[in-house]
Amino acid sequence: MKNISLLAILFSLFLVASCTDKSVDPVDEPGPVGLEFDNVAIINDIVRQLNLKTIGDTEYDLMNGMDQQFNVTLLRYYISHIVLEGPNGEYFEDEVSVSATDSKGYYLIDESDATSQAVELENVPAGRYNKLSFTVGVDEDGVLEGAAGGALDPANKMFWNWNSGYIGVKFEGQSDVSIGGASGETVMTDNPKGMVYHIGGWKDIDGTPFVYNNRRLTLNFDTEAIVNSSEAPEVHLYFDVLKMFKGVNTIDFTGNNNVHKPSDGKAAAENLDAAFIYDHIHQ
Amino acid sequence: MKQTILFVLVILMGLACQKDDGNDPENPYQFVRPSHFPEPTYTFENNPVTENGFKLGKKIFNDPILSIDNSIACSSCHVKSVAFADPQHRLSLGVFERVGIRNAPGIANMAFMKEFLWDGGGIHLDFVPPNAIENPVEMNETLAHVVQKLNAHSEYPDLFQEVFGPIDSINAPLMLYALSQYMNLLVSANSAYDQFYLGKGSLTANQQKGMKLFEEKCASCHSGVLFTNQDYRNNGLDTVFMDEGRARITEWDGDLGKFKVPSLRNVAITAPYMHDGRFNTLEEVLDHYAQGVIMSPTLASELQQNNKLGIDLTTDEQQLIIEFLQTLTDWEFISNPIF
Q: Which helix (H) or strand (E) holds A204?
């Protein structure tokens, strides 16, 4: 008797399970969302693709807020802790975890590597999304677990050995008003025009003097990204390099051109909030 | 969930095998917290110590492949016979005879430290070796190039596969994991002092007098069984700080000239002393605290009690404290054949 009722229960469970499987509509199943980080210079509302110069190239194609000419030889930054939200309670939080061979949820965007600029989020619950949040930089949960592989590999030249932590944004270039003496990956100390902004600082501890330079940004979309297993929306974002140097703080290239510690990078870090811009969605 | 179970297991294993001196004769390659030591700070759940991992870390530690001209190994400035300190140079020497800015500190009980290096710039043990590897006045290499050399080596690819495999290739984090496995096992907890502390051995009358004096006069900073409060202090060496010390990391003038309070375990064999190795003997160190302390805005409050600079110590008392400090030498540690 016992065995029969057990069988009956198992059988009905099986039925229920098979019913739910059949009732799933593709529009209810999770799907992918792509984020494209397009590094640009927006001049008079005209968006220009960034053009990385080779080391020592003294052709200056950009201008900061003080009309000082400059160019870019290197641009790399970390995006992490990505969250998507929608008007009806839709919520997706990108998984973050590190190991010696991989770092999930941390993305190193490199202007010299086009594939790095496309971030693919998987298994986003079906729904409509109109809001994106992310952190520029790597917070303590990416640091305190120890050495990590993938995007966070300390061999990627985005790590400060002398003061353990990740450089959130690494900008290097040259300006004709630079006082020289800067040093970085693409800028040698003897480069008279060099300028280097390595922006880092992750210790966010009340009551301590540490400078925290990671930025938590939220971008609202002017439309909704429709997500399900038969859609693949692409959210197109700009990073306007010009805005790093003008905005809440005006950066003067005649001084402070060799930024290698948190306090020196604070002004540029505060400008980052406006440098990331939502542009459009390819549905 | 799996990680949690693993973590609990690791802790249970640790408890089950807990030994006083940090050594398990059954398996000397297992990390064991000595019973009188605090909980370790290292993230063992990510990187537990294994026999092969330890041996790989030891091989890398002793291999000059880490330096740009293959001339300098970790062990060049961290010498086992003196508890992994640098006995030869006041300021440690790097590649091309380049002079560093500080004296290489000893390596012992790293698994219990919250921060590393004289200024505390290292936040995790895994991140300490790159500081030496990529520093122009130390090994002057890049992690990327070291990894390239390891992958092209005749032995390392197989050794890494044995420890961490299957892996596509050697990467920097795996190399740092191996080095941490080696360093984490370097536990020094079996000195004459430990024997006494655990009721298994005795100290002479003078050593005990020295211990009492030490507890009264030194232990507010050199506290606990690690003999450090793991904080930062300006101990009155200078008024002009060529080396900013802790302020380099906090970027705060209130930390100028402060350095990490060093552990005093094995201190009798880890000369020279201070961040810049300026003192050659413990006598000089004690004499500094008794009558050499200089006033400056960030001077440790412990060294300016009752409107007097330094620590009130007679010559005899200094000698007794030195006799006690000698009981912190762990002969088993520096002669351990597996290290």
A: none
CA distance B326 to chain A (A): 33
Residue A231, both tokens? 């859609």
Does B143 reach chain A within 8 Å, measured CB to CB?
Answer: yes
Give the model's pLDDT for residue B99.
86
Shortest alpha-carbon distance between residue A202 and chain B (Å): 12
Read off the pLDDT of each residue in A223-244 and give the average, rounded to a whole number. Answer: 97
Amino acid in the structure at residue B309: L
The mean pLDDT of B240-256, rounded to a whole number, is 96
Degrees, nearest 5: CA angle B258-B262-B265 = 170
Give the nearest chain B residue to A263 (CA atoms).
Answer: B251
* pLDDT (tens digit per residue) in B6-54: 444 444 444 444 455 666 677 899 999 999 999 999 999 999 999 999 9
- Residue B1 confidence (pLDDT): 43
Per-residue pLDDT for A178 more than 60? Answer: yes
Distance from first CA to last CA of chain B, Å, rounded? 35
Two tokens at A81?
A: 């802790």
How far apart, in whole angstroms, are the C-alpha atoms of residue A48 and residue A32? Answer: 28
Quote the mean pLDDT of chain A: 92
For position A208, what pLDDT does the model report?
86
For domain B42-184, the CATH architecture is Orthogonal Bundle (1.10)
User: Does A163 contact B164 at a Cβ distance shorter than 8 Å?
Assistant: no
Instruction: Find the CB nearest B124 among A100, A146, A153.
Output: A146
What does the pLDDT look like over B157-205, one tens digit per residue? 999 999 999 999 999 999 999 999 999 999 999 999 999 999 999 999 9
Evaluate if residue A2 carries a pLDDT over 50. no
Pick the CATH number of B192-335 from 1.10.10.10, 1.10.760.10, 3.20.20.30, 3.40.50.2300: 1.10.760.10
Closest CA to A102 of B288, B167, B247: B167
B133 chain-A contacts, CB cut-off 8 A? 161
Considering chain B, tell me which residue range(s) the CATH 1.10.760.10 domain(s) occupy.
42-184, 192-335
Q: Report in angstroms the alpha-carbon separations of B156 from A138, B151, B161, B162.
A: 31, 7, 8, 10
CB-nearest to B46 from A146, A208, A209 is: A146
Which residues sit opposite A69 in a β-bridge? A63
Q: Is A99 on the interface with B (CB under 8 A)?
A: yes
What is the distance in angstroms between the Cα of B110 and the nearest Cα belonging to chain A?
14
Extract long-range pairs of A190-193: CB within 8 Å, 24+ residues apart: A191/A55, A191/A56, A193/A58
pLDDT greater than 80 at residue A1: no
pLDDT over 70 percentage in chain B: 93
| Closest CA of chain A from B38, distance in Å | 19
